[in-house]
């Protein structure tokens, strides 16, 4: 990936910038030749005819940083040739779903992202972020469609206490539903996504300069939700037009939900 960046610091709190980059991504070995069974009724099959993906990426934004706050606001447009995407390819009479990979002739993803953090009293901070993206694609037959793989609007808001020895934070996350009218979907597809919010707790302790112990709780209130990024490849007109049936139905939607309340501990040693 090659990048060219132009920025000018007006003051510490305001630096506008523009960035252009050109990217190249070769298909992975799995995407080319893989054969993988996931669960009892899903197969992921490689496509040896895949071409490398190239991209031109444009980013315009501004950022700032002082002793008490930092932030960044960015708008972007990414244009692709031979965009590599995953799709449901076909099913058998027994209901097995076969996934494969394909090149889209042209694709575009655009959106914005912003984040910031403010120190408002001693070691106390407030932080927030927001991100949104939308995409479109054209296949090798010239058929234009929306891109299903982009995520819906996501935001977060949090509060933290941070010292060199210990600290913690609480983060509220909110994700919008993936609206079916914005998708390239078959007429019989069932969309189980809804707007949802979760709360996460994270703590750390540094008994030594190089050693950090961590613990936390993800999804504190045990919210039940479906993450669009994990089911987006089920949704395609190609699948239904070629005799397939929906991989996600009202009856099996619960099997696609994300984990509930999760506890974890971490250990990191810096050499």
UniProtKB/TrEMBL annotation:
Residue stretches making up the TonB-dependent receptor-like beta-barrel domain: 6-220
Going by the UniProt record, its keywords in alphabetical order are:
Cell outer membrane, Membrane, Receptor, Signal, TonB box, Transmembrane, Transmembrane beta strand, Transport
Which processes are annotated in GO (biological process)? siderophore transmembrane transport
Q: Does the keyword Flavoprotein apply?
A: no
Q: Which GO terms describe its molecular function?
A: siderophore uptake transmembrane transporter activity
SUPFAM superfamilies referenced in this protein's UniProt entry, alphabetically: Porins (SSF56935)
Q: What is its main location?
A: membrane
Membrane topology per record: Multi-pass membrane protein
Keyword Signal recorded? yes
GO CC, alphabetical? cell outer membrane
The record, for InterPro entries, names:
Beta-barrel_TonB (IPR000531), Beta-barrel_TonB_sf (IPR036942), TonB-dep_rcpt-like (IPR039426)
Where would you find this protein in the cell? Cell outer membrane
Give a Pfam family name.
TonB_dep_Rec_b-barrel
PANTHER family in the cross-refs: HEMOGLOBIN AND HEMOGLOBIN-HAPTOGLOBIN-BINDING PROTEIN 1-RELATED, TONB-DEPENDENT OUTER MEMBRANE RECEPTOR
**To which protein family does this belong?**
Belongs to the TonB-dependent receptor family. Hemoglobin/haptoglobin binding protein subfamily.
Q: What is this protein called?
A: TonB-dependent receptor-like beta-barrel domain-containing protein
